[in-house]
Design a protein that fits this description.
Layout lengths: L16 H4 L21 H4 L10 H13 L21 H7 L2 H4 L11 H18 L3 E3 L5 H18 L6 E5 L5 H8 L3 E5 L9 H7 L4 E7 L11 H10 L3 E6 L18 E4 L1 H4 L14 E3 L11 E5 L2 E5 L16 H37 L4 E2 L9 E4 L10 H10 L6 E2 L8 E4 L7 H20 L2 H4 L12 H6 L6
Helix pairs in contact: 4-12, 6-12, 7-8, 12-14
The structure holds pyridoxal-5'-phosphate.
Length: 485
Amino acid sequence: MKESVGTTGLILNESLLWEKGKKGRCGFSLPRRDVESCPLDQELTGKGPDFPDLSEVDVVRHYTRLSQWNFGVDTGMYPLGSCTMKYSPKTNGRQASLPGFATAHPLLPASLSQGALKMMFELEQYLAEITGMDATTLQPAAGAHGELTGILLIYAFHKKKGAQRSKIIVPDTAHGTNPASVALCGYRPVLVRSNKQGILSVEAVAEVMDEDTAGIMVTNPNTLGLFEENSQKIAEIVHAKGGLVYCDGANMNAVMGIVQMGKIGVDVMHLNLHKTFSTPHGGGGPGSGPVCVKSELEPFLPVPRVIEENGRYVLAEDYPESVGKVAAFHGSFGVMIKAYSYIRTMGPKNLKKASQLAVLNANYIKERLKGTLHLAYDRPCMHECVFSDEHQKAGKVTTLDMAKRLMDYGFHPPTVYFPLVVDGAIMVEPTETESKEEIDQFIEAFKAIVNEARQDPDRLHDAPKRCKVKRLDEVAAARKPCLAG
Ligand SMILES: *Cc1c(COP(=O)(O)O)cnc(C)c1O
């Protein structure tokens, strides 16, 4: 196997601090005592606290070693499709830690939070401009939460019209959160299949759209990394029957400054600030999933809303048709600052360029790997491309085997087995922040793995071999998790 940078070297084992501790070791020194000594909580509990005795070097090495077991965008390429794991410039994090922002209490009165409110007000406007919509709420804490909020707005819209509907159309390429959000709001998801080109056809939607359908929920670009070219005509069909169009905007990284969703018939959409607008994510958050709407849905947006009155920013609650609050306080404030900083440092031209490069990188990988791996849809893609294990099946090598082996070559695996419409899917999203050299290395690694699959398939079955943790028994890991270490 060809050695690649950063995959060899010391991976140091580390035990639990409790196993490391040795009675009498100490990692600090205190000033000389000038009061009576008194045992800490022995009198209260009858026994001392269960802390190990450790030296400073024990503690520093413990956490430094643990940090080296981690992998993130700061370590290397992380081509996890649908997740937009791009590098987030450090300046955005620095702005979020400015004391005035970082120490602001969410219950401060508006008169003492003018800077924070102004930032939120302007961010709402930028996001509305980028999406081509009229108004924004920043409250939702993630994409799925944005979906829930957006569907609640659709629900409120139909309720006000006096005729609630029972269904929402969701394509077979949708992220699992889409039908879940639909169901949580009391609607029944109606499946519509995408066509041979991997997108929705006008006819398929026309067939299921009726006057008991509240709307359609479409991810665009979709989870196959393909642009839904028929969106505008589909929107016309849905609107003609009184329905609304929801766009899952999680993949906005492909079309910033290029497509204004509001102009192609979208009524409501969410964005994933943590994906598209520069917040390191994964591992549970924090995220932010603002929802942008057309003016017909604005009255239903969550409260409080940040508005401008005579040059001052205030939190306004007086929206009687609002769906109410969807988050504690104002949402994920720190993520908003990073997005604001990202948008301001990039400017309109560079946001557009970022999307163009994200699309270019994905198409480069698609073209260079399509002779090696089976390409599910052989046509220009947007920010990600989807391969499968079709060609390796005969040799009994699976998508999982290849994904695990990629770790031996120093890359985080792509998204696997999603979207569900591609059997054994391998979904690669390089993002705009990877250089050509890094992408070439990834391509070479994949080619080498496919070669191994032909010559020595067994080698792949127990990959990864060079990582800290080897092939896991996934069933046992789910059934009997070991949480101790
Ligand atoms: C990531 C994603 C979501 C969910 O967003 P979260 O922030 O993880 O809740 C929804 N739809 C699509 C297409 C996504 O890629």
